Amino acid sequence: MVYEMNEILFWNDSQNYYDFTRDLETRLDPNNIVEDRQKWMDEMAAFILQNIPTKQDFLDRIAEYEQSGKPIPISSRNLCCNDLSIDQLKKSYKNARFRGKERADIVEKAIAGWAADHIGFYAGRILKKPQEDIMEMTIGAGFGTVSVVRSMRENDFYTGVDIDFLCAKNADGILRHYDKSGVGIAASLWDLPFEDETFSVICSNLGLDECREVPAILKEAARVLKPNGRMVFSCNNAKYRRIKRCFDLYGFSEEEATECIKRVRLYVDHTELSAEMQRLGFAESAYRQFDNKYVVEYTKE
Length: 301
Description:
Strands 3-2-1-4-5-7-6 form a 7-stranded mixed beta sheet, with helices on both faces. The radius of gyration is 19 Å and the shape is globular. It has helices spanning 3-9, 14-27, 37-51, 55-68, 86-98, 100-126, 143-149, 165-178, 214-223, 244-248, 254-264, 270-279, and strands spanning 133-137, 157-162, 182-186, 199-205, 225-236, 282-290, 293-300. The chain is an alpha/beta fold.
């Protein structure tokens, strides 16, 4: 299951979703590929089908979200940054303290297997100067984090920001594993807790796709970027296979699923992104397409 589609489906039934996922997070670890991952996905699928029993119910919820024009107001992970139980705090600390290597190993294998070109180009656009003060917007599973942190030099410093406290601690674990300088923090991307002109490069690997408030986030990122700084984004195109499992529960065709993805904007259109960056005074300095993803770099004009 993919968090962002679930949150869209339950954005107006958020307490129900929050209660379920809080219980799920207490019992299972979605990062535990061997033991808990399949159980997590099976329980989430059963919960979705119980609350959204038909394909028409699914489409009705998509339409309701689309018409609202609002960001997701609450979800399991929106609350993680300010409503963690003691058990969750212990669990997140344990994951960060002991699972940095496990997470890095999983990502390293995936990168080597099917994402080497994409991730290599992405990291290469970020680590260009002799010393970089890096801010990554959204950490998630850590693919972008690993790609950057493993290549950092002695004088580089990494700051990872995610609204999910557990993801922020994943970044800490990855930094500890590679013995690199940095920190992961839980904070809102549209209200960053940093002074103006703090970072030399700001990056995000498939993170903007989860954010309905992209213009506000980009404006805030521009505020904390140093003069002559860069922004590097890896983004999804509107492809069905990215969140295939959720749509498969209801028998959606690829064409139907892709149309739903476009309606709720679980991708970032390259043309619209560049237009927004131009309004903020940035010019596109590098672009490369990778199957259903693209990487783009912007510099201040």
